[in-house]
């Protein structure tokens, strides 16, 4: 079997497979973008539609998110300004402050660049 796909970055499983534009690990269910490393070898964080994100960008939430302790959560279409890219808990890679909610971390897969 020709193995051209990279192993899972979280659990190093060799049995990754493609699902659309994402790579998926069958053991830990981690999903990541196939081209998630740029030419210099550093990680590139992309939004839900494939745009490269950078510190200070403004993004829009593309789906309604439930937030513990908040009766409303974050509604789809909410703009989040001045994001910071981090290596957060799990797949959370955006550190930001959401108006009306406060500081939190978001996944890049639920936002698009504004």
From TrEMBL:
<feature type="domain" description="Protein YjdM C-terminal">
    <location>
        <begin position="45"/>
        <end position="114"/>
    </location>
</feature>
<dbReference type="InterPro" id="IPR013988">
    <property type="entry name" value="YjdM_C"/>
</dbReference>
<keyword id="KW-0378">Hydrolase</keyword>
<protein>
    <submittedName>
        <fullName>Phosphonoacetate hydrolase</fullName>
    </submittedName>
</protein>
<dbReference type="Pfam" id="PF08274">
    <property type="entry name" value="Zn_Ribbon_YjdM"/>
</dbReference>
<dbReference type="InterPro" id="IPR004624">
    <property type="entry name" value="YjdM"/>
</dbReference>
<dbReference type="GO" id="GO:0016787">
    <property type="term" value="F:hydrolase activity"/>
</dbReference>
<dbReference type="InterPro" id="IPR013987">
    <property type="entry name" value="YjdM_N"/>
</dbReference>
<dbReference type="Pfam" id="PF03831">
    <property type="entry name" value="YjdM"/>
</dbReference>
<feature type="domain" description="Protein YjdM N-terminal">
    <location>
        <begin position="4"/>
        <end position="33"/>
    </location>
</feature>
<comment type="similarity">
    <text>Belongs to the YjdM family.</text>
</comment>
